[in-house]
Amino acid sequence: MRGHDEPGHDRQAYDKHAYEPFAVTVDLAVLTLREGALHVLLVERGQEPYAGHWALPGGFVLPDESAERAARRELAEETGLSDVSGLRLEQLRTYSEPGRDPRMRVVSVAFTALLPDAPEPRGGGDAAQARWLPYDTARPLAFDHDRILADAHDRIGARLECSCVATAFCPPQFTLGELQRVYEAVWGTGLDRPNFRRKVLATPGFVEPVPGAARLTGGRGKPAALYRAGTATTLHPPLLRPSPEGHPA
Asked: How many helices (H) and strands (E) does the chain have?
């Protein structure tokens, strides 16, 4: 069987008008930690549909731009975050269910990012306002953004299992307790302190001790030793999150 681009295919049979036009959009699920809790960047829609509802930043891809260029443009226009150091957009997946937008058929390319430094956003474009809102209380959102946000949360949680990104959310010198709280905030579950400490220290290049440095943590015990980010970028072995039953995955 010949493919569409192989010699012999009758290209005259193709009729672009036989297919219903559809739009391509981008949506961004950007997460950060604020005061030890997971937050998501949201905008209040200023136009219909869903005027007055919270949604993920995003919008239509213009004819002369790629999806990633559109994502960065929409982020700047709707939230004011145009020059964010360390913002690494990761393509999440494509959402193409019919009826996801009441205006017309819309296919969305979703991106996610975990932002260590979270400047205050400001609304712009067709967004009435922009805010960092706690992940646990952010929903319900407009369109199918609840699903996109949940998928992004799963992806970010998986990144913490196999990369060293968690150290970016700690001070330059941090205790293992502070590092543990990053994992607990993203994963949404408590971790056994001795087990977490053992796994972190056994992972080559994850953290490095700061010689002679310690910090009082508010308890009656001795000051906690301080660490800094190591040279590794990936975790071998991975630091697996607990399963829903409470056992290591």
From this structure: 4, 9
Per-residue pLDDT tens digits for 105-128: 999 999 999 888 888 999 888 899
Contact 200, 194 (CB under 8 A): no
For 19-160, CATH number out of 3.90.79.10, 1.20.1440.230, 3.40.630.40, 3.30.70.1070 equals 3.90.79.10
Q: Specify the CATH number for 163-229; select among 1.10.10.10, 1.20.58.410, 2.60.120.20, 1.10.820.10.
A: 1.10.10.10
Amino acid, res. 81 = L
* Average model confidence (pLDDT) across the chain: 90
How far is Cα 2 from Cα 47, in angstroms, rounded to an integer?
Answer: 47
Please say whether the beta carbons of 176 and 167 come within 8 A: no
21-67 per-position pLDDT tens digit: 899 999 999 999 999 999 999 999 999 999 999 999 999 999 999 99
Contact assessment for residue 204 and residue 191, using Cβ atoms and an 8 Å cutoff? no
Distance in angstroms (rounded) separating the CA atoms of residues 170 and 168 = 6
Residue 142 has pLDDT above 70, yes or no: yes
